């Protein structure tokens, strides 16, 4: 298929890809995980995994997209061989399954933004009931549809007129909002206690393996590395575009935003919390949203003595959250559409198919938080396998050949060294095996019926759903690969 | 703040924000070079 559209410059490519990486996970998940894992003790392995997981996988994804000009299915079939195309289909399917419920989460952010702007959010003091009333109503479904419509409106316009244009507005706005919130948060009395906790390592915990595994998981979920989304944007890189430097900018840019959000949230919670601040930051709450949708609205109601200013700060916080969510959701929709474009379907038709299916498939998550939790668990762990498949395709192609011919090929500003071969061929597969084993084994300790596929969060439901999906994709592999390479 | 906290913050912020700044400067430099070479 002839490549017709490209990101117009390095900067628009970076801004749009930062939009993939920076999502709600940087804001609410990062702070919660830091709090649960000993503050500063967590930050050290988190930085290490940025270097040995996120950045190498972002480099690999950009290179696969730019070199093959296909989505994950075609890219993996082209590099690893046609028999392995199902691995690419799996990557698409996992990110698409996440898209179904991520649209619901995007809708929550939009709804809370509207509530904050209208002042409605501060008409209550019982935010748990407020959340329960909202989540059990029809509104999550309505806002899920609205989110999907907004994203469809952007994606239909393609790369330069849609994704690039919206990212140029939303990402700088998101950063601006986070900086305003940071300035307010660090100027609160007692904010220093939050910053202290954030950066103080508990030396007894630093060698705890759980902290290292959580740091790896956070990097895997938070940077978007291994999801196939960056690969989809890589397809639209210009021929003379650099890979390594751009990938590093995205990995480091993403983690910089997480640090910014972490300092802001820890300062706010420690300064304003009337009860135990640590409980508030680390408490998961329903659907792991306790901090964001229950405690933060309460804290925002006390952030200044002026009600108008409190409304302003709460509104821009939820607006930032919505911007972060929407730019990530755009990339998930684009990945699904790109796969259909590879099958020979037009962007417009592809969008209608993807948006309609996503609207329907998101409904169970919008109506039942337990269903959303189950999908988040199954496909969240599934992302680690996606990263493994990307690594596998490069090993199969030849890590050194991939590095010298593709990454260091046309347009590269920075030549990557042989360390990349070691990370992609040894370190990433080791990380995958350790992480998946740990998640599945530890899930047996919190559910005595770990084998039951109908429980929300256990090993059984993961293995059951993965097995169904992988079996179907292997069966369909020949047909899907043939359709992708029909020309 | 204790010495350990200060050290941790310097290392973490130094690597993450320092790394970002360093890569950003490099990217700007390469873009300027390409512009001067008339590639854009």
Explained architecture:
The complex is a heterodimer of chains A (487) and B (40). Chain A has one domain: Amino acid/polyamine transporter I, CATH 1.20.1740. In chain A, 77% of the residues lie in helices and 0% in strands. Chain A is built from 21 helices and no strands. Chain A has helices at 10-21, 24-36, 40-68, 72-80, 85-118, 127-135, 139-155, 158-186, 191-199, 209-222, 229-234, 244-272, 277-282, 290-300, 307-342, 347-361, 363-367, 369-397, 399-407, 419-446, 459-484. With 40 residues, chain B is mainly alpha-helical. Chain B has one domain (1-40). Chain B is 85% helix and 0% strand. Chain B is rod-shaped. In chain B, 20% of the residues are buried. At the A-B interface, α1, α3, α9 and α12 of A face α1 of B.
N-to-C span of chain B: 49 Å
CATH level-four homologous superfamily name of chain A: Amino acid/polyamine transporter I
**Beta-strand proportion of chain A:** under 5%
Number of strands of chain A: 0
Q: Report Rg of chain A.
A: 22 Å
Helical content of chain A stands at over 70%
Strand segment tally of chain B: 0
State the end-to-end distance of chain A: 7 Å
Mean pLDDT across all residues of chain B, rounded?
A: 90
CATH class of chain A: Mainly Alpha
Number of helices of chain A: 21
**How many strands, what sense, and barrel or not for the largest sheet of chain B?**
none
Note the quaternary state here.
Answer: heterodimer
Q: How do the SSEs of chain B run, as a string of H and E?
A: H
